[in-house]
Amino acid sequence: MVQAKDLPVEIWRECSTYVGQEDLAILSSASRFLREICIPSLFESITYRPKYLGRLSRGQSMVKQAQQLCELVSNHAIGSAVRKCRLLATLGRTIWKTSDEAKAVYCVFLQGFIEALSEFSNLREIEIELENDTHLFELLLVLAKLPRLESATFHHLHFNRPLVEESLIPCLRLRNLVLKGGYDTIPTFHPEALQYFHLIK
Fold it and tell me: Which one of 16, 107, 126, 149 is at 20 to 30 Å from 82 when CA atoms are compared?
């Protein structure tokens, strides 16, 4: 009887690239061998879109999502498989202005995401949409340490805070940088913030 391991790993991985995400998830649960085969395709691109729905229990679940992400990518095979990451994390103007609880939960969530992001050692492309730029500097510090990052897209962030300590200036070496406006605004730069990026050919 022919077994899965009788075929070269490279053939299995090539086959996995033709399978949809839902089927990959099912296939990866069949055995440890197939899970290792499926991980590169299953986690190559991830989109993280947390929701806060206004109740404490939901807010705590948002924090739990960040904790689960940290636990997930602590598996080196998973963290190193991620090539593209999208973080779409906005609460909306009304919630942000009226709910201190939402702000607190949101900050804890972002801290968890930033911790997890440092495990994406092979990340090539990232897209970020945040409620404001409160944690932007910490995020840039982590991104600057990712050796293979080539492309970054930021939505409605202004980069309008001057740097405090010159020794902590993050410098992202990128081939592609996209700054998108939002809420009827356009991205703006504080002059010193230009030091955050170095575009390469």
Answer: 107
- Predicted TM-score (pTM) of the model is 0.78
Nearest 5°: the CA angle 42, 115, 183 is: 85
From the DSSP assignment, how many helices (H) and strands (E) are in the chain?
Answer: 8, 7
Burial class (CB within 10 angstroms; exposed 0-12, middle 13-18, buried 19+) of 168: exposed
For helices 21-28 and 32-42, angle between their N-to-C axes, nearest 10 degrees: 150
- Residue in 93, 112, 114 with CA at minimum distance from that of residue 103: 93
Task: State both tokens at 38.
Answer: 């499926």
187: left (phi over 0), alpha (psi -120 to 50) or beta: beta
- 141-177 tens-digit pLDDT: 899 999 999 999 988 777 766 555 555 677 888 999 8
Q: Are 173 and 198 in contact (CB under 8 A)?
A: yes
